[in-house]
Amino acid sequence: MPNIRPLSPELAKKAREELNEVPERIDSDLAALRTWLAKSPHIKSRDDDQFLVTFLRGGKYSLERAKEKLDMFYTVRSALPEMLKNRDPFEENMAAILRSGMFLPLPQTETPDGPRIVLVRPGVIDPNKYPMQQVFKLQSMIIDIMMKEDDNLCVAGQVAIGDLENATMAHFMQFSPTFMKKMTLLSQEASPLRLKGAHHLHTPPGFETIFNIFKGFMNEKNRSRLFVHGSNMEALYKYIPKRLLPEEYGGEAGPIQAIVDTWVKKVESYRDYFKEEEQFGTDEKKRVGKPKNAESLFGFEGSFRQLEVD
């Protein structure tokens, strides 16, 4: 038997119907993925059952799709060290971003087999103090923990609420087309997780420009899952029941600070895990065929830092 968490009956049904999961076949699917990894000298990957099954689910049990996602997952991490390496929750800036509650998975789902809801609040961060690549680094740490622990996320997907209250032009100025292309590639091609919806609240002037550029990089399926509600909370409640939101949004999920405190403890407890992550990635010199680098992935040469800070 594979060493993975048993799914709840509701999620097991969803995994069968939507992801083509056949419990009796998981062992042989995992073995096939491991055989491929053993023959892929350029990838150094985690290979525990729980980690690998996330990619099988993300590829809806198409082995080829799971391989593509796993390869891209590590390729992009190696190509963007500024954002995806040296992830220490106790480093001063990381600790400050974590404690701000800028990226906050909410505790409840609408139904036992519902997607995970994540609240994103860029306006609580000072963009002059904390560059967006650091914010994203912290976000990636929380997502890695969720990939490891959260079956609702891995089977049913995620719904994001982007609350842009107090977001300013200084925030938006960091979203260059280059940065947005990276974000889109990370979420669409290099992640086994599925976006089921993204809802934007309290959108300020200037938002539409950024939003339209982002949409241009997205595939049609993800574009159709984007919603802008302005300050109309009632419009949001049509998609996400009010009771699932924190008290500050009129909901019953408790105060934001309590959710933040829970996640601060959890992320800090993963410090050794993030340190261990440093050894995983791709070595493009060992890839059979054409190496993948920043230019081939994102259509530019040079590092994130050279492009974004000038």
Question: Could you give a short description of this structure?
Answer:
This protein has 310 residues and is of the alpha/beta class. The chain has helices spanning 9-19, 26-38, 49-58, 63-79, 81-84, 92-100, 132-149, 151-156, 169-172, 177-188, 207-217, 220-223, 233-237, 256-269, 271-277, 294-298, 304-308; strands at 43-44, 103-105, 116-120, 158-163, 195-201, 226-230, 281-282. It folds into two domains: 9-83 and 280-308, no CATH class; 84-269, Phosphatidylinositol Transfer Protein Sec14p.
Features:
single chain, 310 residues, alpha/beta, Phosphatidylinositol Transfer Protein Sec14p, 2 domains, 5-stranded mixed beta sheet, two-stranded antiparallel sheet, 10% strand, globular, disordered C terminus
CATH topology of the largest domain, which one? Answer: Phosphatidylinositol Transfer Protein Sec14p
Architecture per CATH nomenclature, i.e. the level-2 architecture of the largest domain? 3-Layer(aba) Sandwich
Task: Name the CATH superfamily classification of the largest domain.
Answer: CRAL-TRIO lipid binding domain
Low-confidence blocks of residues: 301-310
Q: Please, could you describe this protein's structure?
A:
With 310 residues, this protein is α/β, with parallel strands linked by helices. It has two domains: 9-83 and 280-308, no CATH class; 84-269, CRAL-TRIO lipid binding domain (Phosphatidylinositol Transfer Protein Sec14p, 3-Layer(aba) Sandwich). The chain is 50% helix and 10% strand. It is built from 17 helices and seven strands. It has helices at residues 9-19, 26-38, 49-58, 63-79, 81-84, 92-100, 132-149, 151-156, 169-172, 177-188, 207-217, 220-223, 233-237, 256-269, 271-277, 294-298, 304-308, and strands spanning 43-44, 103-105, 116-120, 158-163, 195-201, 226-230, 281-282. A five-stranded mixed sheet has the order 2-3-4-5-6. Helix 2 (26-38) packs across helix 3 (49-58), helix 3 (49-58) crosses helix 4 (63-79) and helix 6 packs antiparallel against helix 14 (256-269). The radius of gyration is 19 Å and the shape is globular. The termini are far apart. Residues 301-310 have low confidence and may be disordered.
